[in-house]
Amino acid sequence: MSDHHSEPALRAARASSLRRELRMLCRGRGVYASDLTARLGPLLKEHLGNARGDHGSRARLIAMLTPQIEALPQDLALVARVALGLHEGTRQRFLRDRLDWLAGRMARDARTVRRRLDESLDLLAETIEHGPATAPPPHGAPRTGARPRCLSGAAHRPPRRH
């Protein structure tokens, strides 16, 4: 008999472990590290399936990460791309150099960029593990299955005669 109360804790633990794996992946050249296969943790390997060899692993990793990163808020997606070495302008050897480049581009302190990195990796791990969160519809937008306001009966009733 499984304890359904432990499932959220297990999911949180997996997301936390995946975040640590992503953080390790950011070091050095990120996804372009020469020892990429050795640097992939068990959860990343699980999400990649049977990736053999650095080139195959790299291509599959990039293909897996790209849409997940794009599901993040724009500012956090940029931080994640830079940290992982996926941004075209940031192929520096060290994570610190990439983050310093981003801090200059964003006109922010390097510590602020590092905090955003932590936030982006938390969300990226959750997105990879559980899928992207669905945002509520914008204010005023019809909900799924609901009729738009302009088509409601009140909007199309004939005027009352007094």
Automatic annotation (TrEMBL):
It comes from the Bacteria. Residues 128-162 are annotated as: Disordered. This is CHAD domain-containing protein. The lineage of its organism: Bacteria, Bacillati, Actinomycetota, Actinomycetes, Streptosporangiales.
